[in-house]
Design brief:
single chain; mainly alpha; two-stranded antiparallel sheet
Length: 503
Amino acid sequence: MQLVALLALPLLLLPMLWAMPARSGKYLSLATALGQLFYTLWLIWHRPLAEDLSYAIDIPWFALNLDGAPLLQVRFSLAAGGLQWLMLVLSGMVLTMSALSALGHITTKERAYHALFLLLCTAIPGCFVAQDAFLFYVFFEVMLIPMYFMVGLWGGPRREFAAIQFFLYTLVGSLLILAGFAVSYLLDNPERLLGLGHLPQAAAQAWQTPIAAEGWLSGITMASAVFWALLVGFLIKLPTVPLHTWLPVAHTEAPTPVSILLAGILLKTGGYGILYWAIRLFPAVAAASSDVLAYLGGISIAYAALLALAAQDLKRLVACSSISHMGFVLLGFATGGSLGNQGAVFQLVSHGIISAGLFAAAGVLQHLTGTRDLRAVGGLAAALPRFSMLFAALCFAGMGLPGFSGFVGEFLVLVAGFGAASGGHLPWAALILALGGLLVTSGFFLWALRRMLMGQFYLQDGNTTHLADVARTEALLLWSAVLLALVLGLYPQPWLQLWSGRL
């Protein structure tokens, strides 16, 4: 019942929002996120080490019968292993950072915003602990609703367009995932269960049956079709090139706390889904598709880095850098080994923290100067020394410099990639694209630092006589991201030891 308590806490606190002053809701959200984080750490500390999946609960949820025969049985099945613990800790940290950011950024319709936030506090961890495909899909879909309203109601001038585009893209991905689960369920599944332990039990003959007797689809097996339906659905969420176009718009228009949520944890559900559902259910198809995954990862790293280099809005720059960094996740999965998987998941955790800090910095910049346009500011090191120091540290973390967590994830992925390429299991071109993308990543972060911090102080159309430096709450948020990136970068062993990378 421990995992049920973790998910139920935000829902139980929801009625309290209407029993307290509107402006107090932000403190309830912060307390909830912190409570989930510390409770997760407590569960990890006390988990049974001999079990792969701890705190398991598996009870019937609902069933449908047709003429007395079971048509559908869905179970409320929750459990957490090493991979889930990593994602749950990341979820707790990012939700806490978002709640901290909301203290100063959300000033209208506060009850509604924090009600949606508490709903996310249940849906996001639920995605990571659900062991039933239908239950996972429910949590995955529930995340979509709060994010749509958060962007559409509290976003920038083009918030309606950004919210609708985000909703439609994610809905298409969700429908592909649902179709993949449904076909998997129908293929020779006599127990009529949707659980993870039951989907791969379909008869080999059914999986290897072509989806068409003749024509260009005749060479595609059911296993390949279902794998790619799941993969594309999760790639939209990750996202990867060319399914990425919704992300820069959503980030640019979303308020800072929502951008922290979106980049820090919601995108990570896409990477988690690829590994835990698509690759774990169909390892043979994933191995046969490794070249395609590697090229998608390499192209995303290089192309999105070039997009970031051309960005003039700091939020858009960070959004494009997120797409680039997620390319390393795909590249790690493409290696097909435990080292690559471990590096990819470490990159998910690392990027969740760093991107949350960078988006928080973009929000602080807009709050202090009234703009995020890189062409409209300059010489901030003299006017805002504390902000400039923290922003520079986050940029160095985003570059993947040694000492920061970004270096560990990218290093593990590249080591696994070069090993796989040397054995002929991975194309060298994908690794060359990744290395080129790393160079461009350093270029656009250094360009942003030079343009914003160096030289004579300059603020276009602004009052240059006085600027207040970063406030206490905002400084706490930025310091949290910097210190977490340093702790993970200097001492990654506990995180790496929590999960071996084997599926």
